[in-house]
Amino acid sequence: MGSLAVPALASDTTQVAFTGQVDSAVSLTGAQFRLQADATADQVDAVAEGAEVPALSLPSGSDTITTAGSTFTVKVDPADIPAEFIGPNGVVSFDLEIFDAKSNKYTWTTQSARLDGGAWKDPLTSAELNNAKARSATTSAPPSVTTHLDAATAAVASSFSPVQTRSEQCITTKGGYHDAMAQIGTGYPAAPGYGTTRGSAWLNHQSGSEITFGAGLSTNGTTWKASGSTSVATSKSVSFDWDPSTFWNQQYKVEVRYVTYTRSCGGILINKQVKATSETGVFKTGQPGTGTPPNWLSTSKCGFNYAAGTWSKTTGKAYSYGTGVDISSVIGIDLSTSRAYTSSSKLNYKMDKAHDSLCGDTDKPGLSGKVQQFYDRIEEEL
Fold this sequence. Notes:
Elements: E1 3-5, E2 15-22, E3 32-37, H1 41-45, E4 55-58, E5 65-68, E6 71-76, E7 91-100, E8 105-116, E9 119-121, H2 132-136, E10 144-147, E11 150-151, H3 154-159, H4 163-166, E12 170-187, E13 200-205, E14 210-218, E15 225-233, E16 240-241, E17 250-265, E18 268-286, E19 302-303, E20 309-313, E21 319-325, H5 328-331, E22 335-339, E23 345-351, E24 357-360, E25 371-374
Parallel strand pairs: 1-4, 2-10
Antiparallel strand pairs: 2-6, 3-4, 3-7, 5-6, 7-8, 8-9, 8-11, 12-17, 13-16, 13-23, 14-15, 14-18, 14-22, 17-18, 19-24, 20-23, 21-22, 24-25
C-alpha cells in the first residue's frame, strides 16, 4: 500500500488540527506546503525495510493551511482520516513540509493530534485515557509545533515546482530502527532533615498511557536537528509500577523504538527522519552517583505540613525533558520527552510526619511538571 490522497477541497467540517511557527524572521506568505497523515505503528511494523511506508496525502492549499507572518494553522476534516490511519487512543500523526521560495528555505516537522468526539485535541492535555467521558469533555487548544527553516537544496526546490505534479512522486521509505532509553519522569524524595530516614517516591505507568517523543530531521543525511514530535501509547499488554525508593534522584525510564525514514521526490533525497513508533516494554531506573537535588523551596511553589498518606500527581502540567531520549549515539543529538499526568501514569510520594512538604519546579505541586519532597519544618529555613 503506497500513498493515498484526499481531494483538495475544503469541507464545512474542516477543523484546526494543529498550529505552528517557524523560528525565524521569514514570512510564510506565499510559502508552499505538503501535508500527510502518517502510518500508524502497526502499519509501519508491517512494512519491510526499504519498502514504501503508507501515507495519506491531505489538502495543503491556502484554504486548509493559512499563514500569518511566521505562524501557520493546519486544518483537517476529521472525516478525511480513514480508520487505518488512526492509532491507539484516537491519535493521528501528521507530517508537514514547508518551502518558502522567497528565501529558498525548507523544513519538515511532525505533530500528533487526538481525534476525539469529532474534534482535534492536544494529546498532552487530553490524556485521561481511562475515562472517555472526561477526555471528551476536554476543551484544550490544538497542539502547536515550532520548527526551523534551513536553506533548501536544489532537489527540495525542484520537488515543489510545480507541487501538483512533483508531489505525487514523493514517497517515504522505511529504514532501520534503534531502541533508545527515554526519561519520562523524576522523583526527588526528601532528605532525613530532623529525622533519620529519607522520604520515598515511585511512578506508575499503566497500559495505554501516552508519551510524546521528539523527532529528528536531516536534510543532508548526516547532520540532524530536532523537529516536531509523535505521541506513542504504551502497549495494552504492558504496565509497570516502580517500587518506592528513597534515593535522592529517581529517573524513571522506558525504552522506545525509533525508526529511520527516507523521504524522496522523483527518486531524489529530500530528507531523512527518525520518529518513535512504540515502547518496547523495557523499564529502568536511573540513579546518578553524583550531583545534588534541585532546590525548589519557595513559599509560592510549596505546600507544607501535609497529612500522612500517599500523594499522587494525576493532573496538571505535563512532565517534559528536552533531552530525555538518549539517541545521540545514532544521530548526534538527544530528543525530547513529554508525559501527561493521568490516573494511569502518576508520580507518588509517601508523606508522613518526618517528610511532610512538597514543592513544584514552577508552581504549587499539583500545577507543576516536576515535584520535590522536603522534610518536616523545612519552612523554617525560608
